[in-house]
Amino acid sequence: MERPSLEINLPDTHEEGKLYVVDSLNNLNKLNVCPDGSQHALDEEETTAGTGENVAGSNIRNQCLFFVTFILTLIISLALVSFVIFLIIQTRNKMDQISSRLISEKKNIEELKKMNNMILKHLNQSAIKE
């Protein structure tokens, strides 16, 4: 009778021993492969073994979100730069128009001054004759 009970208990301890050896080999492999700083991340990953897929999916979603945000930022920046360049070109065109008007007005003012001087000379001469 004692013998069958030993046979039942023996495979259980053998299975537990196998699990212990595999667990020890995994820990040893982690120590050899991973640097000291990343061992903490592996320990945390072991504690959250059930949510490992969620963490990986979350990282992928975060990366996708980052890239989408980055691309949107680049597109918005490009649009703003294009708008600023458009405004600079429009301002330059308006300034060219204004400067050409000022030059023409300056010529008109000089002609008016000449005419004013001629009128004053004529009036002075006619006043002297009287």
Automatic annotation (TrEMBL):
<keyword id="KW-0472">Membrane</keyword>
<keyword id="KW-1133">Transmembrane helix</keyword>
<keyword id="KW-0812">Transmembrane</keyword>
<dbReference type="InterPro" id="IPR028099">
    <property type="entry name" value="DUF4577"/>
</dbReference>
<protein>
    <submittedName>
        <fullName>Leucine-rich single-pass membrane protein 1</fullName>
    </submittedName>
</protein>
<feature type="transmembrane region" description="Helical">
    <location>
        <begin position="65"/>
        <end position="89"/>
    </location>
</feature>
<dbReference type="Pfam" id="PF15145">
    <property type="entry name" value="DUF4577"/>
</dbReference>
